C-alpha cells in the first residue's frame, strides 16, 4: 500500500513537472489556470490578435459589406467562417503549427435556424409554445453545425420586437419579454448541452444587446429611444433569463440607445451586463459596428472608436479590424489599460478552452450524412405542425368531403420562401413545397390541381422603371395567370390560396412601410372569391401581415410562418384534419400597418372608451397575442387559488369538449391594477402546453412566487414588491389574491 501511494506521488509530481512549463497545454489543469498561464506567455501583439474576428469566405449576404480576407494570419482569434470542414482544418493546422503558441482559431457563423437543415424561424418557434421541442431543434442544429466545422453560432436573437415593420421581428420570439426569455433559454440549452467540448454542441451568442428591436419606425439600424425603466422591464429580462441558462457570448447591437450607441455603451455593457446581470462570457461587436460609431457621430476616428468599445467591454471586434490596427497605440498612450485588454483576451481564451479546442482543434472529416437526417426531418415537421396558427375558420377546415381541391398562389410551389432568411447553407431542393405536401395528403381522397395565379409581387411593383411595352407584356401575362386560377377555382370544391412573403422580405435590413401583401396577391383572393367557392388562405410569413382587406373574403386562414424544410406535410395534415392545429400567436396581428407598434402588454392609457381611438379604423388588432384556433373546443373550469408557505398555488381544470384530440396552450397572466410604476393591463408569467384526448380533463397549475411573478423592477433594476390586490388571468377566468 505504502509503495502504491509513493508511486502515485512520484507520478503526480512528474505530471505536474512536465506540465509546469505549459499549464495551458495540460488538459487536466483548471481552465482558469490554463488561461492565466497562456496569458503570461503572450506578447501584446498576440493578445490583440485574439480580439479580432476576420471574415473568411463570402456568404453572399448583402448586409455583410466588407472585404473578406484571403490571407489569414495564424494568430487570428476568430474567423467568421464560410467554408467547409477541410478548409477549417487547413486553417486550424496553420494556427496550431505556424503560430508561436499554437492557439486554435474559434470559428463562428450565422447559423440561425439551421445549417443546411433549416427549421422553423424564431417567430414561428415561439408560436409553438413548446420550449422542449425548440430545445431539441437547437440540439439538432448544433450537432450539424459543429460537425460541419463551426464552433460558435450567432444565435439566439432575443430582441423583444413590437413593430412588425421591422424585418428582424422574424428572427426572435415575438413581443413578450417572458416568452423571449423562455424560448431563448431553450435555444441556449439546445445549442450548448451540458458541455461545449463535444462534437454535437456549439457556443451560443445572445443578440442584439440591447433594445435593437425598438428601432424607430421599424427601420433597421435606426435610433432607439429607450428609458432605463423600459430597458429594465422590457428589453433586459430575456437577457437575464438566457444568461442564467448559461449563454456563453453576447453580441452588442447596432442601435443608438437614447444617445449612446449600444456598441460602446458603458452603462448597458459594463454596469448592467457585467455587474448587475453577472455575465462572465465573451462580448463581440456586431458586424463592422465599431467604425460605424463615426457614422453615428459618436467618434471622429477609428482609434477612438476602438478605445470606446474595448473600454466599454466589447471583447472581440467582428470583422472591421480597428482593434488590430489601433490597440497597441491605445495601450501605449494609456487610453486602454493592460488590465482591460487582458480581461478581454482571457474571455476569448476561456471560451476556446471550454470548447475543447486546444485538445480537439480539428473537425473529423469522415462524418456520415449529418443534415436532413430522419430525426431532424421529424423534428422540423413536428415544429412546423405545432407552430402553425389557425387564425380563422368558418366551418371550413378540415377538408373532409372536398373531391376537387384547387391550389393556387405564388407560395404553393416556392421552396426558397419556406426556408426564410438567414438560411445558412439551406438549398431549395431540400424543401418539400406546399403543393407536393397537399397532393400527397389527399392522394386517395381528392384530385388536387394547381395554377399559380400571380407572382409574389407584380413585375411592375418589383421594377416600376421598366419601359411601357415591357409593362403591357407583363400585364397581359398577369391577367392570363389570374384567369387560369379563376377557372381552376370554378372547377374546384375548395380553393387553397398560398400567399405570403419572399424569404428576403423579412430579416436584417428588410423593413417594410406596409406589412400588407402586395396588391396582386390580394387581387388573387378577390378573384377566386368571386367564384363562390370556399377560400382557405395559407400564409407563409416572416412577420404579422395586414390582412384587413382579404380577411373578410377568407373562410379560413392559417399562418405557417417560414417552417423550413419539412413544413408541407404539416400544413397538409392540418388541412386534412390529420393534425389538429395548436399554435398560438406570440405576436399581435394588427388590423392595419398604421397601428404599429401594437402589442398586448402596453401600459394603460389615461382615457378609455371611445377616446384615444383611431377615427378611420378599429383600434383593435385583427388577431391578438395568444390567439389560435383548434378543431376542438376547450373549456376552463373550477379555478382555484390557495395560499401556501412560499406563495400561491393557482389551478384550473381544462377539458377537451370536442370529438378530436388536441394540444391546448394554457396562458397565465398577472395583472397589477395599481402600482407606483404603472404596468400593463396584463403580463404573461407562465404557460404550459397540454395534450387532451376527447373528453379528457386536466388540472393545470401555476405556482406564484411573489418576487418572481408579482414584483416589478425600477429603472435601476431593483425589484419592488408592493402590497395590494393582484389578479391572475387564465382564458376567461380571473382570480384575485391579496399581498
Ligand atoms: C449583422 C447582424 O445584425 C447579426 O445578427 C449577424 O450575426 C452579423 N451581421 C453577422 O452576419
Automatic annotation (TrEMBL):
A family per Pfam: Glyco_hydro_3
Domain of life: Bacteria
Cited SMART domains: Fn3_like
Keywords: Glycosidase, Hydrolase, Signal
Residues spanning the signal sequence: 1-19
Protein name per the record: beta-glucosidase
Positions of the Fibronectin type III-like domain: 664-734
Family of the protein in this entry: Belongs to the glycosyl hydrolase 3 family.
Reactions accelerated catalytically: Hydrolysis of terminal, non-reducing beta-D-glucosyl residues with release of beta-D-glucose
EC numbers on record: 3.2.1.21
InterPro entries linked: Cellulose_Degrad_GH3, Fn3-like, GH, Glyco_hydro_3_C, Glyco_hydro_3_C_sf, Glyco_hydro_3_N, Glyco_hydro_3_N_sf, Ig-like_fold
Organism listed in the record: Bacteroides cellulosilyticus
Enzyme class: hydrolase
BP terms from Gene Ontology: glucan catabolic process
Record-level Gene Ontology MF annotations: beta-glucosidase activity
Amino acid at each position: 500500500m505504502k509503495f502504491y501511494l509513493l508511486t502515485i506521488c512520484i507520478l503526480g509530481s512528474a505530471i505536474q513537472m512536465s506540465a509546469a512549463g505549459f499549464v495551458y497545454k495540460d488538459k487536466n489543469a483548471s481552465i482558469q489556470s490554463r488561461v492565466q498561464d497562456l496569458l503570461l506567455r503572450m506578447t501584446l501583439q498576440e493578445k490583440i490578435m485574439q480580439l479580432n474576428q476576420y471574415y473568411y469566405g463570402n456568404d453572399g449576404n448583402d448586409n455583410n459589406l466588407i472585404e473578406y480576407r484571403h490571407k489569414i494570419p495564424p494568430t487570428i482569434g476568430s474567423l467568421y467562417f464560410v467554408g467547409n470542414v477541410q478548409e477549417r482544418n487547413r486553417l486550424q493546422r496553420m494556427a496550431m503549427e505556424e503560430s508561436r503558441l499554437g492557439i486554435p482559431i474559434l470559428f463562428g457563423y450565422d447559423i440561425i435556424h439551421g445549417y443546411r437543415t433549416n427549421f422553423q424561424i424564431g417567430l414561428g418557434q415561439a408560436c409553438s409554445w413548446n420550449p422542449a421541442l425548440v430545445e431539441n431543434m437547437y440540439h439538432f442544429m448544433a450537432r450539424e453545425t459543429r460537425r460541419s466545422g463551426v464552433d460558435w453560432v450567432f444565435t439566439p436573437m432575443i430582441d423583444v420586437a413590437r413593430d412588425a415593420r421591422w424585418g428582424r421581428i422574424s428572427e426572435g420570439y415575438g413581443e413578450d419579454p417572458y416568452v423571449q426569455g423562455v424560448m431563448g433559454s431553450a435555444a441556449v440549452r439546445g445549442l450548448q448541452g451540458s458541455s461545449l467540448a463535444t462534437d454535437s454542441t456549439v457556443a451560443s451568442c445572445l443578440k442584439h444587446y440591447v433594445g435593437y428591436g425598438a428601432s424607430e419606425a421599424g427601420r433597421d439600424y435606426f435610433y432607439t429611444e429607450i428609458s432605463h425603466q423600459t430597458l429594465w422591464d422590457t428589453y433586459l429580462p430575456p437577457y437575464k433569463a438566457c444568461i442564467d441558462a448559461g449563454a456563453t457570448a453576447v453580441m452588442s447591437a447596432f442601435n443608438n440607445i437614447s444617445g449612446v450607441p449600444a456598441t460602446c455603451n458603458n452603462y448597458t455593457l459594463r454596469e448592467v451586463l457585467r455587474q448587475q446581470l453577472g455575465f462572465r462570457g465573451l462580448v463581440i461587436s456586431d458586424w463592422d459596428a465599431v467604425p460605424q460609431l463615426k457614422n453615428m457621430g459618436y467618434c471622429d476616428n477609428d482609434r477612438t472608436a476602438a478605445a470606446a468599445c474595448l473600454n466599454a467591454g466589447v471583447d472581440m471586434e467582428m470583422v472591421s479590424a480597428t482593434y488590430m490596427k489601433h490597440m497597441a497605440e491605445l495601450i501605449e498612450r494609456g487610453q486602454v489599460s493592460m488590465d482591460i485588454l487582458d480581461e478581454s483576451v482571457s474571455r476569448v481564451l476561456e471560451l476556446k478552452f471550454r470548447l475543447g479546442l486546444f485538445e480537439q482543434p480539428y473537425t473529423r472529416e469522415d462524418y456520415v450524412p449529418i443534415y436532413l437526417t430522419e430525426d431532424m426531418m421529424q423534428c422540423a415537421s413536428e415544429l412546423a405542425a405545432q407552430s402553425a396558427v389557425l387564425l380563422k375558420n368558418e366551418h371550413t377546415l378540415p377538408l373532409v368531403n372536398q373531391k376537387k381541391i384547387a391550389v393556387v398562389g405564388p407560395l404553393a410551389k416556392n421552396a426558397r420562401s419556406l426556408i426564410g432568411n438567414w438560411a445558412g447553407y439551406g438549398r431549395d431542393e431540400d424543401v418539400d413545397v406546399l403543393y407536393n405536401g397537399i397532393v400527397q395528403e389527399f392522394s386517395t381522397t381528392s384530385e388536387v390541381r394547381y395554377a399559380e395565379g400571380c407572382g409574389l409581387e407584380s413585375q411592375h411593383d418589383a421594377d416600376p422603371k421598366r419601359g411601357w411595352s415591357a409593362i403591357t407584356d407583363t400585364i397581359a401575362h398577369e391577367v392570363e395567370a389570374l384567369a387560369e386560377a379563376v377557372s381552376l377555382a370554378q372547377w374546384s370544391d375548395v380553393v387553397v390560396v398560398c400567399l405570403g412573403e419572399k424569404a428576403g422580405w423579412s430579416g436584417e435590413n428588410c423593413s417594410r412601410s406596409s406589412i400588407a401583401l402586395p396588391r396582386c396577391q390580394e387581387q388573387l383572393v378577390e378573384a377566386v372569391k368571386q367564384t363562390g367557392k370556399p377560400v382557405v388562405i395559407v400564409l407563409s410569413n416572416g412577420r404579422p401581415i395586414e390582412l384587413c382587406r382579404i380577411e373578410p373574403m377568407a373562410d379560413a386562414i392559417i399562418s405557417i410562418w417560414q417552417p423550413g424544410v419539412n413544413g408541407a406535410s404539416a400544413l397538409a395534415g392540418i388541412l386534412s384534419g390529420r393534425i389538429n392545429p395548436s399554435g398560438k400567436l406570440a405576436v399581435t396581428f394588427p388590423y392595419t400597418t398604421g397601428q404599429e407598434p401594437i402589442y398586448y402588454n402596453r401600459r394603460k392609457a389615461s382615457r378609455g372608451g371611445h377616446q384615444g381611438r383611431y377615427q378611420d379604423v378599429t383600434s383593435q388588432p385583427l388577431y391578438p397575442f395568444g390567439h389560435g384556433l383548434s378543431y376542438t373546443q376547450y373549456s376552463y373550469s373550477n379555478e382555484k387559488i390557495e395560499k401556501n408557505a412560499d406563495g400561491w398555488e393557482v389551478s384550473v381544470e381544462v377539458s377537451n369538449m370536442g370529438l378530436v384530440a388536441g394540444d391546448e396552450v394554457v396562458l397565465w397572466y398577472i395583472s397589477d391594477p395599481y402600482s407606483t410604476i404603472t404596468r400593463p393591463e396584463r403580463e404573461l408569467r407562465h404557460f404550459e402546453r397540454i395534450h387532451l384526448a376527447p373528453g379528457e380533463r386536466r388540472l393545470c397549475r401555476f405556482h406564484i412566487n411573489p418576487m418572481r411573478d408579482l414584483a416589478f423592477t425600477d429603472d435601476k433594476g431593483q425589484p419592488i414588491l408592493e402590497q395590494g390586490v393582484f389578479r391572475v388571468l387564465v382564458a376567461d377566468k380571473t382570480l384575485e389574491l391579496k399581498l
